[in-house]
């Protein structure tokens, strides 16, 4: 189990992204995942790890989307 949690500032950005009508579907998914990991009992699932990894490797996503992806990946299962 990973004991890392989403920071307060990242959680705030994620909450704003979820309520913004202009936010892309992928960014909302990553933001929701990051926000759900504000609690230490949650960790990134394998599917979301894959999505976040692909976002970080692509040039087509914004810096904010990539920051959510990085947050999500940093909280992935240590054994995967």
What does the model show?
By secondary structure, this protein is an all-alpha fold. 60% of the residues lie in helices and 0% in strands. The protein has four helices and no strands. Helix 1 runs antiparallel to helix 2 and helix 2 packs parallel to helix 4. The chain is globular, with a radius of gyration of 12 Å.
Low-confidence regions: none
User: How do the helices and strands follow one another from N- to C-terminus?
Assistant: HHHH
Helix content: 55-70%
- Continuous helix count: 4
Question: Average pLDDT value?
Answer: 89
Give the tags.
globular
Chart the SSEs and their pairings:
Blueprint: H1 8-19, H2 25-36, H3 46-57, H4 63-74
Helix pairs in contact: 1-2, 2-4, 3-4
Describe the structure concisely for a colleague.
It is built from 4 helices and no strands.
């Amino acid at each position: 189990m990973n004991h890392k949690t989403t920071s307060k500032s990242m959680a705030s950005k994620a909450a704003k992204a979820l309520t913004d009508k202009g936010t892309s579907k992928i960014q909302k998914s990553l933001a929701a995942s990051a926000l759900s990991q504000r609690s230490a009992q949650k960790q990134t699932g394998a599917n979301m790890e894959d999505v976040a990894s692909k976002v970080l490797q692509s040039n087509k996503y914004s810096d904010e989307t990539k920051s959510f992806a990085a947050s999500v990946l940093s909280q992935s299962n240590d054994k995967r």
